[in-house]
Design brief:
heterodimer, A: 254 residues, globular, B: 332 residues, alpha/beta, six-stranded mixed sheet, 14 strands, elongated
Chain lengths: 254, 332
C-alpha cells in the first residue's frame, strides 16, 4: 500500500518535472475549450433555448467544458503509454521492483496533475468573459480534487484501450470516438432532462455526468444535494477502471 | 555455487507458431561478461526478456542467481537491471531528473540518493550535462545515461540488449570502458546481446552463438576461433563456381583442415597459411582455376559463425538491421 502510494507520488513528480520543462501542450489544448465558452456559450445563451435553472448558459457549460478538456488530457495519456511501449521505457519500468498495478495507478494519477493544470488555465478566461464562480475556497479545492481523481480513472480507461490498440494511429481515432460520445451524452452542455429517453439511460452510466454535476455544483450553482452520490459514482468508476487497466496492462508489453 | 544465469530446456513460442527459442540450455558464471551473439531474429531479445521477467517461457526453466524467473520474479527484479535496445529514458526531462525518478522507483534511501546519483553521473562521464534535457544528448550520451540508470541499485547482474546499436566506434568504446570499470569495481555480471562480432570478441569473457532459437556453440573467443582449426586462405575466383571434384581433391590434401565455398570465395582452413599458399596456388592453376585475389586471415568470430551456420551474420542481419536503425533515427 505504502509502496503504491510512493509510486504514485514518483509518477506525479515526473509529470510535474515534465510540465516545468514544457507547457506548450497545455496552452494549445486550451484553445478548444476557450472557443466553447467564448463563442458557443454566448451565442446559445442569446437564444435562451436551454433551461439551465436560472444560471446564465455560459456559466452552465463552463464546468462541462473544463471536464471535457481534462478528459481529453487523460484519454490521450494512454497514447503516451503506447509511445513508451514503442520506446524502451515501459520495458525498463517493468523490470524494476515496483508492482505492475502500482505503475498503472501511478501513471493514471499522474495524468490527474496534467488535468488540474489544464482546468486551471480555463478559469481566468471564464472570469474574463463574466462567468460568476462561487467564491468558496473549500468548494474550489474539492472541485479540483474531483477533477484529479476522475482524470485518473479516465487515464486508466485509456491504458485499457491502449492495451488493445498498440499503435498510435489507431489510438488517435479511438480516443476521439470515446470522448465525443461521452461529452454529448452527458449533462455538460444541456440538462439530462432534455435528452431522448435512451440517451438519458446511457447518461446514468456516463461517469462524465457525475463529474460535471459535482463540479458544477461546487463552482457555479452551489447545489450540492447530489454531491455524495456523485462522489460514490466517481469512486466506483475509478476502482473499476484501475482494476481493468491493471489486468490488461500486460497486453501492452507482450 | 549458483550460476548468475542458468537456463534449462527453455522454449518460447509466440502465437502458437513462431519458435523464438528452441530448447536453450545455458549457464553463465557470476562476475563474467557474457555475450549472446547472433543475427537479428535469432532469439536474443526473447531470451533477455524472459530472464528479466518480462515475459514467460512456453516451457523449460530459467534462474537468475538461483531464483526462478517465473515463480520468484519479484525477487529477481531486486537483483537485476536491464537496458533495453530502444531508448528507455524520458527525453523531455534532464539526465539528473531521470536518475532521480529511477532512484525513487528503486527505493534508494533518501540520504544515499544524491551521493549515488553523483557517483554514477561521474562514472558515466555525464556530470557536465546532467541538467540538460536528454533531448539534446547524443546517442552515446543517452546510452551512458541508460546504463547510469541501471547502475543506481548496484545490481548483481546487468542485462544489456544490443548496448551499442547505432553508436559510432568512439562512443562504443567509451560505453565499454565505463562498463568494464563498473565490472571491476563492483564485480557485476554483464549479460549482453549483440550482433557485432567484434564487440563480442573484444569485451566478452564468454560467448554463446545463437541462431534460429538454438545455441549453436559457446566458449571464449579464443576457444571458438581455435575450433576452426587455424588460419584461413581465401581465394576470390574469377569463375563463380568450382567443380565439386576439385573441392573434394582439395579437401583430401593432408594439411587442409576444412574448406568452404561462398559465392566465388573459396576459403581453406590451414594451420600455417604462409607455407601452404604456394602449393595450393599451383594446385588450382594446374586444374585451370583462375584466381583473382588471395587473402590470408586469422579467424574471426564471423568465420566461426559461418562454419556453424553456413552464412555470415552481416548478411543475415542486414535488411532488418537497416530497418531498425532507420526506425531508431526516425524516433530520434
Amino acid at each position: 500500500m505504502m509502496e503504491t502510494l510512493k509510486n504514485i507520488l514518483v509518477m506525479i513528480e515526473l509529470e510535474l518535472r515534465r510540465l516545468r520543462h514544457d507547457r506548450t501542450e497545455i496552452y494549445f489544448r486550451a484553445v478548444q475549450p476557450i472557443l466553447w465558452i467564448v463563442i458557443y456559450g454566448p451565442v446559445m445563451s442569446s437564444i435562451r433555448a436551454i433551461p439551465t435553472g436560472g444560471v446564465p448558459y455560459t456559466d452552465f457549460i463552463t464546468p462541462g467544458v473544463m471536464i471535457q478538456t481534462t478528459t481529453f488530457v487523460s484519454i490521450f495519456y494512454g497514447l503516451m503509454m503506447v509511445w513508451e511501449r514503442d520506446s524502451g521505457i515501459l520495458k525498463k519500468l517493468l523490470v524494476t521492483p515496483a508492482s505492475r498495478y502500482s505503475m498503472v495507478i501511478g501513471r493514471s494519477m499522474a495524468s490527474g496533475v496534467r488535468a488540474i493544470f489544464q482546468a486551471l488555465i480555463i478559469l481566468p478566461i471564464a472570469l474574463l468573459i463574466g462567468v460568476k464562480f462561487l467564491y468558496n475556497p473549500a468548494y474550489l479545492i474539492l472541485a479540483f480534487m474531483i477533477i484529479f481523481f476522475a482524470s485518473g480513472g479516465f487515464a486508466a480507461i485509456s491504458i485499457l484501450v491502449a492495451s488493445f490498440m498498440k499503435t498510435r494511429e489507431r489510438f488517435m481515432g479511438i480516443g476521439q470516438a470515446i470522448i465525443m460520445p461521452l461529452f454529448f451524452a452527458s449533462n455538460a452542455l444541456y440538462p439530462i432532462q432534455l435528452m431522448p429517453p435512451i440517451l438519458r439511460e446511457f447518461s446514468t452510466f456516463n461517469p462524465l455526468s457525475y463529474v460535471v454535476d459535482a463540479v458544477r455544483g461546487l463552482l457555479i450553482t452551489g447545489d450540492v444535494s447530489n454531491l455524495l452520490l456523485d462522489l460514490i459514482a466517481i469512486a466506483i468508476f475509478d476502482i473499476i477502471a484501475f482494476i481493468l487497466a491493471s489486468i490488461s496492462f500486460k497486453r501492452i508489453i507482450e | 555455487m549458483d550460476f548468475a544465469v542458468e537456463v534449462n530446456n527453455l522454449v518460447k513460442i509466440y502465437d502458437k507458431k513462431v519458435r523464438a527459442l528452441d530448447n536453450v540450455n545455458l549457464t553463465v558464471e557470476a562476475g563474467k561478461t557474457f555475450a549472446l551473439l547472433g543475427p537479428n531474429g535469432a532469439g536474443k531479445t526473447t531470451l533477455i526478456r524472459i530472464l528479466t521477467t518480462q515475459i514467460k517461457p512456453t516451457s523449460g526453466e530459467a534462474y537468475v542467481f538461483g531464483l526462478n524467473v517465473v515463480r520468484e520474479g519479484s525477487k529477481v527484479r531486486k537483483l537485476i537491471s536491464y537496458v533495453p535496445q530502444e531508448i528507455s529514458v524520458w527525453t523531455d526531462i534532464s539526465g539528473y531528473e531521470n536518475l532521480l525518478i529511477y532512484a525513487k522507483i528503486f527505493n534508494v534511501s533518501h540520504n544515499e540518493r544524491e551521493k549515488i546519483i553523483d557517483e554514477v553521473l561521474e562514472n558515466m562521464g555525464l556530470t557536465n550535462v546532467k541538467n540538460d534535457l536528454v533531448r539534446t544528448y547524443s546517442g552515446g550520451m543517452i546510452r551512458r545515461l541508460e546504463i547510469a540508470c541501471a547502475l543506481i541499485i548496484k545490481p548483481k547482474i546487468m542485462f544489456l540488449d544490443e548496448p551499442t546499436i547505432g553508436l559510432d566506434p568512439v562512443a562504443r568504446k567509451i560505453v565499454w570502458e565505463r562498463l568494464n570499470f563498473f565490472k571491476k569495481e563492483y564485480g557485476v555480471t554483464i549479460f549482453f546481446n549483440t550482433h557485432y562480432m567484434d564487440e563480442a570478441d573484444l569485451y566478452a569473457d564468454d560467448i554463446a552463438i545463437i541462431n534460429q532459437g538454438k545455441i549453436i556453440t559457446r566458449g571464449t573467443s579464443e576457444e571458438l576461433k581455435r575450433s576452426l582449426g587455424g588460419e584461413i586462405i581465401t581465394f576470390t575466383l574469377e569463375t563463380f563456381s568450382l567443380k565439386s571434384e576439385i573441392l573434394q581433391e582439395i579437401r583430401k590434401l593432408e594439411f587442409v583442415k576444412d574448406i568452404f565455398m561462398e559465392n566465388s570465395n573459396l576459403s581453406i582452413v590451414i594451420n600455417n597459411a604462409e607455407i601452404a599458399l604456394p602449393y595450393i596456388m599451383d594446385f588450382l592453376k594446374n586444374r585451370g582455376v583462375s584466381i583473382g585475389k588471395v587473402s590470408i586471415t586469422k579467424p574471426t568470430l564471423d568465420d566461426v559463425f559461418l562454419k556453424y551456420v553456413g552464412t555470415r551474420i552481416e548478411e543475415k542481419g542486414r535488411i532488418s538491421d537497416i530497418r531498425h536503425m532507420r526506425y531508431m533515427i526516425k524516433k530520434g
